[in-house]
Amino acid sequence: MSLTRTTAPTAAPLTNSLTAGKLPRHSPLIVLLASWLVTGAFFFVLMLSGAAEGFNIVGTLFFGTVVYCVAIFLLSYYVEGVRKAKDRLVTALVTVAFVVALLPLFSLVFTTLVNGLPAFLTPSFFTQSQRNVVGEGGGALHAVIGTLLITGVATLISVPIGLLSAIYLTEYGRGRLARAITFFVDVMTGIPSIVAGLFAFALFSLLFNDPGIRFGFGGAIALTVLMIPVVVRSSEEMLKLVPNELREAAYALGVPKWLTILKVVLPTSLAGIVTGIMISISRVIGETAPLLIISGFTASMNYDLFNERMMTLPVFVYTQYANQGADTQAYLDRAWAGALTLILIVMLLNLGARVIARIFSPKLGR
C-alpha cells in the first residue's frame, strides 16, 4: 500500500493595485468628488470673504471637473504609465462634456431651490389663493388647481386623438391621406405655443361672439393643439417597434386585425406609449403664452373650466414677477416658489413615466 502525500492549496498572493500598475476601481469617482470638494471649498471661502455674492454652484462643478481631468491624468501617469493615462484623460474629457451639458440644469434647480424654498415651505402657499392679498402672505392654491384641471382636460382630449392617429398611420395608413397626416403632424410639432393660444382665442371668440372671452377650457384646447403632435409622434414610433412576427402570428391564428391591435400591438408597446404621453404632458404644463391669452389670470379660486378666468402656475409665476406690489420681495418669493412647484410636478411626471414603463414593459424570458 502506497501512501500519497496531499498538499493543501495555497492561497493566491495578495497584490496591491497601486504596486501592480493599476488604479483601484473607484479611483475616478473618488478623484472627481475630491475635485468638486476642493473647488467648492474655494468658492465657499470667496463667499465668506465677500468677494462673491453667493455660492457659485456652476463654477464649482465646471472648474472641479477641469481639476479632475488634470488630477486623474497625473495620477494615472504616475501609477499606470503614459498609455493608460491618455485613455483616462480622454474619458475625463467626455465627463467634462457631460457636466457642461448639465450645467444649465444644475444652475436652474439650485437657484430655484435657494430662492423658492422659503415661500414653498410656508403652509399658506398650498392652502390659500391671492384674493385680497397685496403684500406678504397668500398662496398659489388657485394656480395649482387651475394647472391640474386645464392640463387634465387637455390630456383627456389629446391622448385618444393622438393615439388613434398613430394607430392609423402605423397599421392602416397608406397613400396620400397618410402622407398628408404625417406632414401636418410635423408642421404642428414646430408651431410656436403662442400660435396655439391665438387659435383657441380666435375660435371661441367667433363661436361665442365675445372678443374678450377668457376661460379655462379654452386653455385646455390650446394645450391640446400642442400635445397632439407629440402624442402622435411618440406613439407612432413605439408602435413601429412592435415586431411584425407578433402580428403575423395573430393573423395566422385567425385573429382579426382590430383585435390584434387591441390585444397584441398595444400591450406590447404600452410602456413606451405611456412614457410618450407623460413627456407630452411635461412639455405643455409649463406653457405661459397660450394660457395667458385664452385663460387669463385671476387671484381667486375657480373650479369651473367653462366660466370666468382661471389661473395656472406658469401665469402665476409671470404675474407675480411682472406685477410687483409695494412688498417686492414677497412677490419675488412667491414667483420662485411657483417655479419650484412646477419643476417638482414635471419631475414627478417623469418619474411616474419611468415607473410605468418599468411595470408595463414586456418581460422577456431567456
TrEMBL record:
Ranges for domain ABC transmembrane type-1 come to: 144-353
- Going by the entry's taxonomy, the superkingdom of the source organism is recorded as Bacteria
GO CC annotations, alphabetized: plasma membrane
**Membrane-spanning residues where?**
29-51, 57-78, 90-121, 141-169, 181-207, 213-232, 264-285, 335-357
The principal location of this protein is: membrane
The record's PROSITE patterns line, in alphabetical order, gives:
ABC_TM1 (PS50928)
What is the protein's given name?
Phosphate transport system permease protein PstA
